Amino acid sequence: MVLSYYVFFASDGRVEHPAGGYKKIFETCKELAEPIEAQVTGQVPQWLTGSLLRVGPGMFEVGDQAFHHLFDGQALIHKFDLKNGKVTYYRKFVRTDAYVRAMTENRVVITEFGTTAYPDPCKNIFSRFFTYFQGIEVTDNCLVNIYPIGEDFYACTETNYITKINPETLETLTKVDLCNYLSVNGVTAHPHIEKDGTVYNIGNCFGKNMTLAYNVVKIPPIQKDKSDPIEKSRVVVQFPSSEHFKPSYVHSFGITENYFVFVETPVKINLLKFLSAWAIRGTNYMDCFESNETMGTWFHLASKNPGEYKDYKFRTSAFNLFHHINCYEDQDFIVVDLCTWKGFDFVYNYLYLANLRNNWEEVKKSAIMAPQPEVRRYVLPLTVDKKAKGKNLVSLTYTTAIAVLRSDGTIWLEPEVLFSGPRQAFEFPQINYNRFNGKDYMYAYGLGLNHFIPDRICKLNVKTKEIWVWQEPDSYPSEPLFVQTPGRLEEDDGVLLSIVVSPGAAQRPGYLLILNARDLTEIARAEVEVTFPVTFHAPQNMQETA
Ligand SMILES: CCCCCCCCCCCCCCCC(=O)OC/C=C(C)/C=C/C=C(C)/C=C/C1=C(C)CCCC1(C)C
Ligand SMILES: [Fe+2]
Question: Is the peptide bond preceding residue 306 cis, with omega within 30 degrees of 0?
């Protein structure tokens, strides 16, 4: 039974998973010695050639030690090659220090996001003591995304380490420490890539005397002299921090033609805990987060050229934010579309593997306690009339989003809700990035999370709020990637690619799914004899790498 359907204004969210097939996406798998051929049903469009790369965790335990959090498993890169209607699949673990040392010592050696590495119990008490005071190493486990810099591809997490990989062979090439080039302690796994290849990213910077800022960094495109663009990278603008000693967690940011948009949420990193954690037994990154229960959420703007902070004081109620969908300038406003999670409680607290691998009734119970997802549109006015206190400053006729100047000089924002379904998230958003990032647009595509379990692919018309859904029973898709049909101009003329695990299918339980982006109907699927663990993100420019 195929549940491919079209609904107006709401997803019914009634799909249940009593068989617990989703547990499969949190299981360790083996890498492949060579690419395997997929069995294609339907017709892969002839123009759709190239490689789809994806990354996520692939090893959830080492020796007799388990990784505890969704973001701890060792980075595994997946690759689907498409050529002349044929599809092959290949995967390989990234040889990070975290992976190589875990394999060599058969234990967790480097502390991961939610798993602490303990010193080798076989070492004597003196060498264990010295291991502590050498400091715990920052992880290079690049399981979150892959992006291009110049002619190279890097797998990344959110620390200062990125890992150059060969996108053809999936071999690991070099580990790069961004601290050697830039004043940042880490950068997000969601850089923006401009048409000429310029990379913009944002990261925390713990400066001298504990001054805190969020630095926007720029890495130029391919250099004429063939030198590494990373060597020419620089900080272009700084956003201030709302609190001393406590920067907010940042997972992504927005970019328009002329502005950077940074949303400072109440999910805070307690720096004192973080710095002392390196010397204290038993702590990991997750232990260093806390919520600021009073600040709400702050929106910040900076101009791009020249990079200049604009001190507007935009405020709204508390939410968690991981993914910006898109943002753009319209008249004298910036429109910002976001996948939010209501409240200050950190969503990552609910992403321990023990929670996600639970039986369905338990999974649902735990998600009821968590912040609730909502796709929201905020509108930031660029001109603020000081005499218009208490009045709505937003005059765009197509949105109900509000911005009100208050007597303390802050501008209070109320969003327009673009999609809301109880415990039904529209997450891992994608757009027709190459043509519409930073521009007025119509369509967002996303992964539907049902109580945190990814069980459908969605399309949202951000202007009319229409929703399209692709869903099949006991099937667990990944973030859908949009690829435009060559030579076509319409925003949604293209395909969506997603990798799906359907554990019930005995012979071929995993496949690459190709949907028509217009209506989410299936064009083709390429099935393989293996399943895939969960993947997070992929390069946004498959067409160019094709
Ligand atoms: C695809 C289906 C997933 C199934 C369940 C998902 C539910 C998701 C619900 C919300 C969306 C969340 C999206 C998050 C996506 C993601 O990929 O996140 C991964 C983030 C990671 C691995 C972050 C690592 C960050 C680190 C190690 C940060 C380290 C640092 C600090 C904490 C302090 C300052 C310094 C430093 C070292 C940068
Ligand atoms: Fe992400």
Answer: yes
At 325-375, the pLDDT tens digits run 999 999 999 999 999 999 999 999 999 999 999 999 999 999 999 999 999
Q: Which of 69, 137, 145, 158 maximizes ligand 1 atoms within 8 Å of its Cβ, making it the mutation to test the pocket?
A: 158
CA 58 / ligand 1 centre spacing (Å): 16
Give me the pLDDT at residue 2, please. Answer: 34
Q: From ligand 1's centre to the CA of 507, what distance in Å?
A: 33
Complex ipTM tops 0.90: yes
Total-model pTM = 0.95
Q: What are 435's two structure tokens?
A: 């043509």
**What sign results for the dihedral spanned by CA atoms 444, 449, 453, 457?**
negative
Residue 301 has pLDDT above 60, yes or no: yes
Cβ 492 under 6 angstroms from ligand 1: no
Buried b (16+ CB within 10 A) or exposed e, 20-47: bbbbbbbbebeebeeeeebebeeebbee
User: Rounded to whole angstroms, how far apart are CA atoms 175 and 191?
Assistant: 18
Say if ligand 1 is within 6 A of residue 429 CB: no
Q: Which of 68, 182, 536 to mutate to test the pocket of ligand 1 (most atoms within 8 A of CB)?
A: 536
